[in-house]
Write a structure and sequence with these properties.
mainly beta, about 150 residues, five-stranded mixed sheet, 15 strands, globular, single chain, about 10% helix, 1 helix
Length: about 150
């Protein structure tokens, strides 16, 4: 009798603890920033008969900081690469393999940087030297496409 009880428990006990996989509810992001990060490299001078260069996907991390002006960063040399950013990081999101990203953010303005090796890349400035600003409005998904082109020439 003990043998049958042991056999019954040994066979069916592992199944009592198993639950079917639970589906996690993924809420769609309806407020924030979405976009695509691509890269252009090499010689970009137009040539007769040659098609223009097609940007390539640039899988990376996209960083959203408080609005940042040039005086609140550190650079090795003048240009679009930054070694340090001295404002508050709000969030960071990874792109997928195609360079696409979506970030859920509260209403406000943000400076956007992408990771380029060990540095941060941004090449857009406003008249007050704020770097790569994007504005998020209530209930809207702002589109922002970023082209990483610091290795291209023209």
């Amino acid at each position: 009798m003990r043998f049958f009880l042991f056999l019954f428990v040994a066979i069916f006990f592992p199944f009592w603890g198993c639950k079917p996989p639970q589906k996690q509810k993924v809420e769609p992001i309806i407020q924030g920033v979405k976009g695509l990060v691509t890269a252009i490299t090499g010689n970009q001078m137009p040539r007769i008969g040659a098609p223009p260069t097609v940007p390539q996907a640039y899988p990376t991390t996209v960083f959203f900081y408080e609005p940042t002006d040039i005086t609140r960063t550190q650079q090795w040399t003048p240009g679009p690469l930054f070694t340090n950013i001295y404002t508050k990081l709000i969030t960071a999101v990874d792109t997928d393999s195609t360079g696409a990203f979506v970030a859920k953010l509260p209403v406000g303005s943000y400076s956007v940087f992408v990771q380029a090796g060990q540095q941060f890349y941004a090449n857009s400035f406003d008249i007050r030297n704020n770097i790569n600003l994007v504005t998020v409005d209530k209930g809207k998904l702002t589109e922002m496409n970023i082209v990483v082109n610091y290795t291209s020439t023209n």
